[in-house]
Amino acid sequence: MHPFIVFQKAVERAAPNESLRERVANLIDSITFSVYQYTTRGLFECDKLTYLAQLTFQILLMNREVNAAELDFLLRSPVQTGTTSPVEFLSHQAWGAIKVLSSMEEFCNLDRDIEGSAKSWKKFVESECPEKEKLPQEWKNKTALQHLCVMRAMRPDRMTYAIQNFVEEKLGSKYVVGRALDFATSFEESGPATPMFFILSPGVDPLKDVESQGKKLGYTFNNRNFHNVSLGQGQEVVAEAALDLAAKKGHWVILQNIHLVAKWLRTLEKKLEEHSKNSHPEFRVFMSAEPAPSPEGHIIPQGILENSIKITSEAPTGMHANLHKALDNFTQDTLEMCSRETEFKSILFALCYFHAVVAERRKFGPQGWNRSYPFNTGDLTISVNVLYNFLEANAKVKIMYGGHITDDWDRRLCRTYLGEFIRPEMLEGELSLAPGFPLPGNMDYNGYHQYIDAELPPESPYLYGLHPNAEIGFLTQTSEKLFRTVLELQPRDSQAGDGAGATREDKVKALLEEILERVTDEFNIPELMANVEERTPYIVVAFQECGRMNILTREIQRSLRELELGLKGELTMTSHMENLQNALYFDMVPESWARRAYPSTAGLAAWFLDLLNRIKELEAWTGDFTMPSTVWLTGFFNPQSFLTAVMQSTARKNEWPLDQMALQCDVTKKNREEFKSPPREGVYVHGLFMEGARWDTQAGIITEAKLKDLTPSMPVMFIKAILADKQDCRSVYCCPVYKTSQRGPTYVWTFNLKTKENPSKWVLAGVALLLQI
After folding, report:
1. What are 511-523's pLDDT values in tens digits?
2. What sequence ranges are listed for the domain Dynein heavy chain region D6 P-loop (predicted)?
3. 397/769 Cα distance (integer angstroms)
4. What is residue 218's three-state secondary structure?
């Protein structure tokens, strides 16, 4: 629908009033809410709160109701690096943010007060819903935005809820409790000049709504006044003919998957414009398309989007809805079709649970799955057919699933789930699909749906075999993304992105000068080589690392000097220079640096400090080429080459074949400060973190994580090379090691870690070692 029509209708809807002031207030309220409804109808759920936050902040900034410096802190959450938290209930990261906040006038002495009144603050930080609690002591009178700033530092995982509360307080509850508009209401706003445009998402068929609305109004296939064209197989001519006929006769036309015919879209745009005038008043067009995978991939013409009512429809979320949805693929007849009824029903229900778990586990990001897979109902129905054929043939049941899966660790996860859910005990009624959710016995179809409603525990990571920390991590990532997006949406000339009032250019210049001053000279590799007598595997790795570091620091200096000249007006600003300027301003690692560096999820400030530490480590090692007492494994561009060098050194010494060797990993009971010299064979390494569980140093095994401690650090680990057939594989969890929490392609190695529990527990919990957090 054209924005002007939205505006016009909002003016008509506004309540009349004799008082000019009241009338203007009513108009503003009606227009704001109408624009909000019009926009959010076409947004996916994950983007609605981002839009709402941006809308609220812009209104408050325009009315001068918020302090720009405080909003800047909220959006950026800057952290004073190198600080140590003096209280156990706040992480070092959180304390670094509190230190920055305390330097602002309104938060003066906040840090001292937290230390002095630790008990009250601990209670606030550890409460279940801190966004609903008042701040302790005299801080309770702070404004809503100031409350958000404190929350952002202390409990980033609750920020999506806190923002909802903030919006409700500032704009009113209708903005947050609003249910999605039903199809009939949206349909009323359509017309010959206003098509309806469905943005598709997996597992949802929005056209069912169109069909049922059509039935009510007498538009059906049988009545020959309802045309459905699925594009993508040369159907463009059919679509054009259907549009021409429908415009003349007042029929309805559905055009499915218009994103598959990119070249024809301009023709479609012209056709729709042509029929928007002088067509039959009952003529309606409904289109559907998948969202573009990236901003560059947008192909739908603006004219089509601008004139349409855009509607998203998404699959329900959560285990409860997904388990019902999985079961909905079958009927009472399905349950009765197999002669081995008890086994068939039990395995079918377990498969429905499995299907719901693998689909919904995606929301936990890389800790859920290394890569994202398009699991669909076809996978489930095919598996049930296979199950039926196996049981009827009296064969041993083997379930095939996961043809989509490309990652070995994801394949292991999928196998483990099936191994946990489908086992002989299920027929004795002794199997739990999740804590507190036993596999149901022999029931009819409706009985299973009722069993889900009555017995399935509330939504939590436990339903997936994950620890509650997985949800904290997922919520923190969601809020980080929200604030990052809102920050990038701030108008260039606004004060919201310019905390202390310094201009954008001044900030960039200051940062640029600081980086140039602190980044070190290149390593002189020929000179270093001259100091080496024997090129051992370790020394080869050191030279490779120096070479990679030189490429990176050279690009940092080159690009910054170029930008410096551009800002002075001595060079014409190019798009590369502008991108670099934006990255510096938004605390992001510039793309040309990231390409030459190592995977990292850090912002620019933290990334640069980490870079300086890596350089320092490399300088110390190449100073005399003696192995450090413990090696910071994170510091390598290529940690695999270093771990391979451990095997090569041992292989040369013992004359063992390299392809028959493996690395053994023993976790020590000490921290790096307690080691004064390297081991005689192998290496000590430090700097690793565990995600999904923690290491029990005293018992020397993996154990359950502590709540809110998402990535506890590991003690020093002793890595040595042994013959592969000498590996002890009893009571161990094969633990993948990744460079970052993004997992997937950042895989480094596999370390076997001792466990008393069944290793499958740690597979389902997504336990991994990370080199950086």
Report:
1. 999 999 999 889 9
2. 192-312
3. 35
4. coil
Q: What is the pLDDT of residue 178?
A: 62
- Do 299 and 379 sit in the same domain of this protein? no
Structural domain of 576: 503-616
Q: In the block, which residue shows the tokens 């400090």?
A: 609
Q: What residues contact 106, with CB distance under 8 A and at least 6 apart? A: 67, 70, 142, 146
Kindly tell me the burial class for residue 641, based on how many C-beta atoms sit within 10 Å of its own C-beta (0-12, 13-18, 19 or more).
middle
Structural domain contains residue 621: no
**pLDDT recorded at residue 422:** 86
Residue 649 lies in a domain: yes
Radius of gyration of the chain (CA): 30
Under the banding of pLDDT at 50, 70 and 90, the label for residue 496 is very low
Q: Return the bridge partners of 667, or none.
A: 717
Residue type, 379: D
Nearest-CA neighbor of 127 among 98, 105, 154, 108? 154
| 526 and 642 assigned to the same domain | no
Which residue, chain included where needed, has tokens 């089509």?
A: 304
Q: Is residue 294 part of a domain?
A: yes
**CA angle in degrees (0–180, nearest 5) for 220-194-13:** 115
Residues 252, 350 within the same domain: no
In a domain, 479, yes or no: no
CA 445 to chain CA centroid, Å, is 36
Structural domain ending residue among the three candidates 174, 203, 238 = 174
Q: Which residue has the tokens 């506004």?
A: 14
Q: Give dist(CA 589, CA 514) in Å, integer.
A: 15
CATH number of 563's domain: 1.20.1270.280
Q: How large is the average pLDDT for residues 646-653?
A: 93
**CA angle 190-193-197, nearest 5°?**
55
The domain that holds 717 is classified in CATH as: 3.10.490.20
Q: Is the same domain home to 601 and 718?
A: no
- Specify the pLDDT at position 500: 45
Contact 342, 335 (CB under 8 A): no
pLDDT for 405-432, tens place per residue? Answer: 889 999 999 999 999 998 887 877 778 9
The model carries a pTM of: 0.87
Does residue 51 have a pLDDT over 90?
yes
What does the pLDDT look like over 70-93, one tens digit per residue? 999 999 999 988 889 999 999 999
Q: Tell me, what's the pLDDT at 26?
A: 94
Output the CA torsion sign for 174, 180, 184, 190. positive
What is the phi/psi pair of residue 748, to 5°? -115, -55
- Which pair of structure tokens corresponds to residue 580? 């670099």
Give the tens place of pLDDT for each residue, 662-697.
Answer: 999 999 999 999 999 999 999 999 999 999 999 999
**CA pair distance 448, 349, nearest whole angstrom:** 8
**Shared-domain flag, residues 654 and 590:** no
636 with 767, same domain?
yes
What value does the mean pLDDT of the chain take?
91
End-to-end CA distance of the chain: 45
Q: Tokens 């285990």 — which residue?
A: 319
* 3-class secondary-structure state, position 484: helix
Whether residue 696 is found in the same domain as residue 563: no
**What domain count does the chain have?**
5
Contact 737, 751 (CB under 8 A): yes
Instruction: Reduce the secondary structure of 355-399 to three states and give it as a string.
Output: HHHHHHHHHHHHHCCCCCCCCCHHHHHHHHHHHHHHHHCCCCCCC
Examine the fold and report which residue of 268, 286, 313 is the final residue of a domain before the chain moves on: 313
Strand partners for 286 = 196, 254
Confidence tier at 396 by pLDDT (50, 70, 90): low
The helix (run of H) or strand (run of E) holding residue 733 is strand 732-738
CA separation, residue 647 to residues 603, 621, 656, 721 (Å): 35, 19, 10, 5
Q: Which residues contact 131 (CB under 8 A, 6 or more apart)?
A: 151, 155, 158, 161, 162, 165
The domain spanning residue 374 has which CATH number? 1.10.8.720
> What is the four-CA torsion angle of 243, 249, 254, 258, rounded to 10 degrees?
10
